[in-house]
## 1
Amino acid sequence: MQICRSTQTIRDCVAAWRADGQRVALVATMGALHEGHLHLLAQARDWLDAHGGGRIVTSIFVNPMQFNQPADLETYPRDEETDLAMLRRAGCDAAFLPGVRDIYRPGAQTVVEVTGLSRILMGRLRPGHFRGMTTIVTKLLNIVGPDATAFGEKDYQQLTIVRRLVADLDIPVRVIAVPTVREPDGLAMSSRNRRLTPADRAAAPVLNKALDHGQQLVARGATPAAVRTAIRRILRAEPRATIGSIDVRDADDLSRIAAIVRPVVILLAVRFGDVLLIDQRVAHP
Ligand code: PAF
């Protein structure tokens, strides 16, 4: 696996693969890798194999622009050695680890924002977060120039925003949506899980339980309000869970809905101690 620490070295690396006729897929991460990230790599590999083979770049960059709390940025888990070992084992071809100054050069003024989708749902709780995310994703796509890029369904709003970004700016890349990977007890894998206390970790699978129930209600023809009420009841029965939000939205564009006549996404944001967990489920009427 090649290790590239500057935009120039990753550009040179990708240019050499391109000259050799290889396709390229990008998996963008902020490190603290877990099985869920490796699943993104596996799906990127499947896509490449289905398109004649190619190389995978994984970026590891803790993007300051998407943190709206300085303390979150400072305490974000960083373990480069373990991350690189995992990437090697997963068959990644190049790791891109740029420095902050290489990405945000002095004098930079440009940001990229998907205006509507970035200001709803989690965007209201974390102002500026999605603008930071779309700015770095645009930069990574410009630097690496991949044919495909894999994003997890777990961050469903992020995935929806990235799809909108790519369509609106005519970026020639295929966005691969990767289903959420779960622990055996149903908890969605996330770098945040390692910050849960043992008691909160034991309580957190209630999210998956609530989503399972919500999905069944949607299949049985329930209204969005009935789904939210049932989910709230399940979450309230878990004393360690503090509900941030429960939303049932159109699965394509995250718009509000009065009745469920098309696929919806159920979105949960729930706090355990000081750790905010998000999870989602696409459900079909
Ligand atoms: O999902 C993430 O880890 C980040 O938001 C991303 C896409 C790597 C951009 O920093």
## 2
Amino acid sequence: MEKTFAMIKPDAVQRGLAGTIIARYEAKGLRIAGMKLMMVTEEMARKHYAEHVDKPFFPGLLKYITSGPVVALVLEGRNAVAEVRKMNGATNPLEAACGTIRGDFAQDKGRNAVHGSDSVESAQREIAIYFGDDEVLEYDYLPAKWLFE
Ligand code: IDP
Ligand code: MG
């Protein structure tokens, strides 16, 4: 089944929202295939956000994402990439719909609580930055038969 990479960013961890956000992904029926609390190094951040390194906001993004622990997640499910993007909401929390994580829990583009991969290719690339092969687990996920026809 499709895998995506998600991250609970330092602002959300510091604000005690990690459990609440993980609960949303779980309640949707996404299987947690990998999860860890970790610091993002500058090297990881530069790889992850390679497409943004020349943008004016990059120095601020680098400082933010390396400023405290994050929860890195590999989530698996049907259309997991698109589902997580939809659940996360628009990049700018001001434009994110109510009911989305950014719409409900954030106020500033530079403190937008969560990350989700934007394609299956990005997901594979990002998972490889944050997880070793032995940290992404396959196991029998019992709800599957109740989630999918
Ligand atoms: P995404 O996270 O919704 O895919 P991107 O445009 O790929 O959004 O930007 C990556 C991250 O960079 C955003 O989630 C946000 O943390 C940060 N970012 C993007 N644009 C801005 C900005 O204009 N000011 C501050 N931070 C920004
Ligand atoms: Mg992006």
